[in-house]
């Protein structure tokens, strides 16, 4: 077991009707004027935004609305949020939405509390000082990114060419409170539900198959989460308003990315680093869809370096019989079982399904590796040749 520090201070308020507690909770956290941040019109159509505003008003809090967040939150829009927050003198940001809205809110908070462009931190791998925290809360509407409890904030710089997608990892961006009502995910489309299922699994799997590090307890927790998500995902796809299935996915979203399943493990996230340039160059490609294509191909490419762990994953999560004489067969069977599951829930598993062709590979690889100067860390360094081989396996 590796040394680790575990910190998950986000207060979670979970269940039906939790929106009524928003105003009181935010007031107790010191809020007086709230920036209510959201994406498109769905939170208005469902009535969720009205519930949020009503709770703030009842608690005597003033607010200003700032909607319009797009997938892969854009730096240019974040700049507008920072300007609005300063002009309106807000002292709390409440993100009403999924991962993109939450990450946009986090980045706005970084700009407000530091006075610096959030990209300064994302582009350099640095982060604000420990005491520089702008309070952010979340009303979650999509079970996927886990940003509601994570110390991660991924944004896209649309002010440069080509666009670049990078993140800030720091305790300064972890939300103070998250309101999780599974009913708010009933209207999420089958495709976006599938993308969320994949993202939840990836946040867990990228902490599970990392190298020759051993931590049986964390791995057992991860396996239980993955099996629960596997089954709840099937139910949610078939029956979108099944509360228990949606509740499982929502809680798993949070647990998959608050580092619980990675305690004592090495954290590298190579497949996320392979995917971010894909959805940066092609804004229409959903993050979860990119991961469902790239993770199985990456796993097939690197499994020879960790056959026991990939075979264990296949046996415990994907119900593949263990071939003790040839565990590599079990490992490969697990990868194929995962791909079948992704197909079952409507997710792509081939580059062509993302609309990508081989003539685009060089541009994506160049962005991924900073012109071939910075390989992606994994079981081995993944440079241009290795990434091209992974793409070939994904075709």
Describe this structure in words.
The protein is an alpha/beta fold and about 400 residues long. The chain has two domains: about 10-185, Rossmann fold (3-Layer(aba) Sandwich), CATH 3.40.50; about 190-395, Up-down Bundle (Dehydroquinate synthase-like, alpha domain), CATH 1.20.1090. It is about 45% helix and about 10% strand. The protein has helices at about 20-30, 40-45, 50-60, 75-90, 100-115, 120, 190-210, 215-240, 245-255, 270-280, 285-300, 305-315, 325-345, 360-370, 385-395, and strands spanning about 10-15, 35-40, 60-65, 90-95, 135-140, 150-155, 165-170, 175-180. The protein has a six-stranded parallel beta sheet with strand order 1-8-5-4-2-3, with helices on both faces. Helix 8 packs antiparallel against helix 9 and helix 12 crosses helix 13 (about 325-345). The longest helix has 23 residues, at about 215-240. The chain is globular, with a radius of gyration of 20 Å. The two termini are about 35 Å apart. The model has no long low-confidence stretch (mean pLDDT about 95). Keywords: Oxidoreductase. InterPro entries: ADH_Fe/GldA, ADH_Fe_C, BDH-like. Pfam families: ADH_Fe_C (PF25137), Fe-ADH (PF00465). One of its GO terms (molecular function) is alcohol dehydrogenase (NADP+) activity.
């Amino acid at each position: 077991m590796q040394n680790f520090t575990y910190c998950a201070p986000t207060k979670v308020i979970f269940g039906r009707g939790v929106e009524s507690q928003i105003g009181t909770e935010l007031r107790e956290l010191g809020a007086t004027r709230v920036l209510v941040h959201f994406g498109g019109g769905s939170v208005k159509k469902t009535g969720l935004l009205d519930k949020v505003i009503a709770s703030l008003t009842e608690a005597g809090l003033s607010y200003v609305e700032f909607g319009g967040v797009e997938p892969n939150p854009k730096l240019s829009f974040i700049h507008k949020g920072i300007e609005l927050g300063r002009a309106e003198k807000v002292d709390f940001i409440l993100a009403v939405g999924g991962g993109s809205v939450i990450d946009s809110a986090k980045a706005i908070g970084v700009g407000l509390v530091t006075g610096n462009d959030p990209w300064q931190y994302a582009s350099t791998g640095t982060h604000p000082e420990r005491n520089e925290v702008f309070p952010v809360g979340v009303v979650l509407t999509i079970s996927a990114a886990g940003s509601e409890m994570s110390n991660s904030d991924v944004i896209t710089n649309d002010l440069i060419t080509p666009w670049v997608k990078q993140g800030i990892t720091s305790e300064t961006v972890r939300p103070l409170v998250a309101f999780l009502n599974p009913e708010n995910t009933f209207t999420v489309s089958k495709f976006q539900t599938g993308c969320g299922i994949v993202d939840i699994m990836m946040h867990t799997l990228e902490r599970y198959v990392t190298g020759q590090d051993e931590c049986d307890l964390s791995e057992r927790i991860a396996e239980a989460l993955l099996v629960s998500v596997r089954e709840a995902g099937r139910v949610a796809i078939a029956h979108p308003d099944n509360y228990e299935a949606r509740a499982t996915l929502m809680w798993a979203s949070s647990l998959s990315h608050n580092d619980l399943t990675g305690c004592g493990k090495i954290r590298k996230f190579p497949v996320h680093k392979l995917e971010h340039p894909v959805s940066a160059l092609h804004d229409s490609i959903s993050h979860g869809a990119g991961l469902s294509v790239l993770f199985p191909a990456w796993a097939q490419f690197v499994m020879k370096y960790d056959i026991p762990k990939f075979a264990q994953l296949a046996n415990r999560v994907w119900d593949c019989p263990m071939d003790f004489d040839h565990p590599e067969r079990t490992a490969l069977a697990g990868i194929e079982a995962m791909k079948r599951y992704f197909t079952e829930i409507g997710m792509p598993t081939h580059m062509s399904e993302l609309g990508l062709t081989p003539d685009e590979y060089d541009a994506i690889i160049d962005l991924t590796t900073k012109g071939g100067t910075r390989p992606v860390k994994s079981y081995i360094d993944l440079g241009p040749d290795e990434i091209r081989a992974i793409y070939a396996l994904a075709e």
